[in-house]
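We modelled the chain as a single entity of 81 amino acids. Its sequence is:
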Amino acid sequence: MKIVLEKKAIKYFERLNKSTQIRVNEALGGLLYEPPQGDIKKLHRRNNYRLRVGNLRILYRIEPDVVIITNIAPRGQAYKE
């Protein structure tokens, strides 16, 4: 299984400071395990999940052999779409 970041997630990840990038990278690595590790919840009425890393939320969906990271954002802005 591999992890793919969408453009929106890449842009936000690049703006993070180095220590936060390391924390996010470690959390994303936990998604490769079966079952995925971390503070994960299925989003209500969607086929997406969220991973909590401190004040950040990583929104993703699982497809065959790939985890697609759709968004990385602070808690208050992550669910506004």
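As a brief sanity check on the tokenised model: The mean pLDDT is 91. The helical segments are 7-15, 18-29, 75-78.
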